[in-house]
């Protein structure tokens, strides 16, 4: 149940506890206004697990970016610059091989660098495995036709299509969506639930 759909007294807006929320639901049910309470959409178990798979890849990519930034900051802190012959090959196999050959003045610094590098290498392996699994999932009967249609849209890859499909689950559940015909295809428009006067609002 979406808490925003439950009738709320003024004093209840400034205080939020499980007990107050339970009382609000009970009050609405007792008053006979339960037909106005709309339950939220809960995907089935398969949809939730497939969504978790795609989200894990997104989280690991973000972790990978943080790890790369950590390595660059670490090298910059100790005044180390990338050789000219591989300056344009960041995060390639050759670049990683150069990183693994770096020796700092003390054991402690070398140990820290190795830990960060090992973290990056493991993340890359996990991302590759997740990507392979997601591409395999995209060929499942449940997703294959939708993925094929979405990939006909310029800029939509197989992975992007899987992100959309696993997050939306079913587009039919959105009541404020309209399809607007265009010369070359269709636009999907989401009608806002309220009018605002400014960007701040």
Can you walk me through this structure?
The protein is mainly α. It has 2 domains: 34 residues, no CATH class; 129 residues, no CATH class. The protein is 54% helix and 5% strand. It has 7 helices and 2 strands; from the N terminus they run αααααααββ. A hairpin with a 4-residue loop joins strand 1 and strand 2. The longest helix has 33 residues. The chain is flat and about 75 Å long.
Strand content of the residues, in percent? Answer: under 5%
Kindly provide the radius of gyration, computed on alpha-carbon positions and rounded to a whole number of angstroms.
25 Å
Structurally, the number of domains stands at: 2
Helix and strand composition category = mainly alpha
Reading the helices and strands in chain order gives HHHHHHHEE
**How helical, in percent, are the residues?**
40-55%
Total beta strand runs? 2
Which oligomeric state applies?
A: single chain
Biggest β-sheet strands, sense, barrel: 2 strands, antiparallel
Span between termini: 25 Å
Shape: flat
